[in-house]
Amino acid sequence: MILAAGRGVRMRPLTDRLPKPMLAVAGRPLIDYQLTALARAGVDTVVVNVAWLSTKLVHYLGDGARWGIEIRISDEGESALETGGGIQRALPLLGADSFWVVNGDIWSDFPLQDLPTEPTALAHLILVDNPPHHPHGDFALLGDRVVEPPCTRRLTFAGIGCYRRELFDRACAGAFRLAPLLRQAAARGQVSAAHYRGRWRDAGTPERLASLDAELRASRPGRR
């Protein structure tokens, strides 16, 4: 699943005309990078949740044939259901007992095929070093388990994870964020994680989007 329903308030005015996952980086919409990476990892079906400017995103995605995958749309109407509520709403479309979820406003060279298909815990998260705009991180990691500080320093959640549908059994329908649900599960020892030290960027503001655009353009093969 790709989370793509948010309004993108921090991205305004860019998101006044386009949904955030359609903003271009090095000439390609952000969501194109994610769909390409998922297809490369062997995924054949992707659920995309939509809300803000949904018709533009749905039209761009089509049936997914250009990426060699099937795209299913989870339409949340006019108001997005946040990260947790969006995943819960999409469970019937996801179907499987476990599934991958990627945030729609990130870029990374993380090899998605390294995600587990059947996590031993209720969730398995990819964590990265804290970027300058998020110095305090999100979750602490001890071995392969997410724990509460002060056991160790916090790392930043990359917006890449694998979840079991049981994670959402106790959640009420409606809009809610995923992070509190993960922290509750982590307190029970039911969240695993891995620390990825490769390239990862959160393109959540116009400035960070422009920085990522410049970085990817500069790293194109043959560019001097």
UniProtKB/TrEMBL annotation:
InterPro entries according to UniProt: GlmU-like (IPR050065), MurU (IPR054790), NTP_transferase_dom (IPR005835), Nucleotide-diphossugar_trans (IPR029044)
Keyword Transmembrane helix tagged: no
Pfam families: NTP_transferase
Molecular functions (GO terms): nucleotidyltransferase activity
Residue stretches making up the Nucleotidyl transferase domain: 1-214
Keyword Transferase in annotation: yes
Keyword terms of this UniProt record: Nucleotidyltransferase, Transferase
NCBIfam families: NAMPUrTaseMurU
Record protein name field: Nucleotidyltransferase family protein
Organism: Nitrococcus mobilis Nb-231
